[in-house]
Amino acid sequence: MRDVARGRSGRSDRDKLAPKAVIGRVSLYLRQLEAFQERGMTTISSSRLGTTLGVNDAQVRKDLAYFGQFGCPGIGYRIDELIVVLRGILGIDREWSMALIGLGNLGQALLKYRGFRGRGFRIVALFDNDPSKIGKVFESMTVAPLDSLAETTRSLDLEMAILCVPADAAQHAADIVVSSGITGILNFAPTPLVLPDRVNVVGVDLSVQLEHLAYKVHNSQIAGSIALEDSASSFRPTSTSLE
Amino acid sequence: MRDVARGRSGRSDRDKLAPKAVIGRVSLYLRQLEAFQERGMTTISSSRLGTTLGVNDAQVRKDLAYFGQFGCPGIGYRIDELIVVLRGILGIDREWSMALIGLGNLGQALLKYRGFRGRGFRIVALFDNDPSKIGKVFESMTVAPLDSLAETTRSLDLEMAILCVPADAAQHAADIVVSSGITGILNFAPTPLVLPDRVNVVGVDLSVQLEHLAYKVHNSQIAGSIALEDSASSFRPTSTSLE
DNA sequence: TAGATTGTTAATCGATTAACAATC
DNA sequence: TAGATTGTTAATCGATTAACAATC
Fold first, then answer.
1. What's the whole-number average pLDDT of chain B?
2. Is A200 in contact with B217 (Cβ distance < 8 A)?
3. How many CB atoms lie within 10 A of CB A216?
4. Are strands A200-203 and B160-163 parallel, antiparallel or unpaired?
5. pLDDT of residue B184
6. Total domain count for chain B?
7. Choosing among B29, B210, B230, which should be mutated to test the A contact, i.e. which has the most A CBs within 10 A?
8. Which residue is nearest to the C1' sugar atom of D8, using CA?
9. Are residues A117 and A201 in the same domain?
10. Are residues A73 and A144 located together in one domain of the fold?
């Protein structure tokens, strides 16, 4: 564990980052714009882009205005221009080399997953501390022990790591990642990591997501049965169907 | 109270669901409480629980108070009691049977992933529309064609589906899921789904998460180099030294 | 021009945090 | 009792939406 001093330390640079929610939506806008472009469209209004993604039109404009003025009043946004701009904002107008740490089921799957490569994220080195994994070859890369990470980070210019180790190994692995100089971690381990401020983490907690779904289904079942009781035979206007 | 003509769609039931963020944190509280319990602790204060997870203590209390009064002033919360309560709230005090739809890399991985099973989520049937997948056996389950989903939903009492198909197949697959009577979808396909209100969806968009990380790293690198320039120029102008 | 759509301000809505009486 | 901690209200903070002048 490095300098834990969370909180009030020198955050001023960080404070300039756009709110989490904005960036998530920008990512969605970009993908949708690419889809529109493929269909041959050249301009798009905030209203149309928003409707497709379930986002208010004012929100689309505000999100984009956060980074500059990219639209033409009366016309909308030029799709090709906006795509270039958004890629630059997100920092995906280039390739990123990543380490994959932990080659259990999830790690192996993410390695094969095509979704990342198409967007410039390349897994170029594999690490694990399990002796039964070290030396194995996946996608023509050999799994190396975690303590060789620093060296490889230098030789291959790794900037991000995907952390797919069990919860009880996560903090230790993360410490090694940090000391190797990597400054971005995509954390799939279901545990909070304590890290220095300069290291960026995005957590993907599959159990939390699934439990959220269980909560919703569980509670809409309850709501549903109450509604049934309430209006025994009145046809429930099941609002929007597909469309 | 139930059928207040609230705007466009009949959402009144849904409006009673706790905010997304609250549920996400409740899920984290539960996991942390289980960890505390394993270490033999019997009570916990909102302050201690919050600190461990990086959540404000007032927020912990408020989140829990959303569902009832579970604490003892001066003492804190009894861990074993709170665990039972939270499991009930989330609807994970029982088992959920799920369909896995799409057996590409990600689907296969999620099938093997241990994280779900331990929490009562069981994948009990596999579906795919790719002829090369149908009939194959994974974890002693045979992949069936998607159009047999409705039948299996009835026979096995499926309530949720994990959707792991490519983006361009997702809406069609989701329509079949919905028509089969399943009311919860964990969507890994990187595309928005258009679904009736009564169907619950939680989306897990790995590309969005990874792009968010890229954004953070990209921008903290910029911030970092500006900070370097700034401090360098304060006593060594025009220096371009790295490190 | 008339219609469409932006960027932006003001209004609204929701979520987080501080503060504190109640209470164990 | 004194110290600790809850549940909850009020204050703050942040995010979303409505509205509209500017402009293509």
1. 87
2. yes
3. 23
4. unpaired
5. 97
6. 3
7. B210
8. B62
9. yes
10. no
pLDDT tens across B167-198, in order? Answer: 999 999 999 999 999 999 999 999 999 999 99
Checking if the pLDDT of A224 tops 70, the result is no
Give me the domain span that covers residue A47: 15-90
Instruction: Please enumerate, as own/partner, the contacts of B74-81 that have beta carbons within 8 Å and a separation of 24 or more.
Output: B75/B43, B76/B43, B76/B44, B76/B45, B76/B46, B76/B48, B77/B43, B77/B44, B77/B45, B77/B46, B77/B49, B78/B42, B78/B43, B79/B33, B79/B36, B79/B37, B79/B41, B79/B42, B79/B43, B79/B44, B80/B37, B80/B42
For B63, other C-beta atoms within 10 Å of its C-beta total 22
Give residue A204's pLDDT band: very low, low, confident or very high (50, 70, 90): very high
Closest residue to B214, CB basis, from A90, A219, A241: A90
**Residue B230 has what pLDDT?**
54
**Token digits of residue B232:** 């360098």
User: Which residue, counting CA atoms, is nearest to the C1' of nucleotide C22?
Assistant: B73
* Confidence band, pLDDT 50/70/90 cuts, at residue A240: very low
Q: Which residues of B touch A117 (CB under 8 A)?
A: none
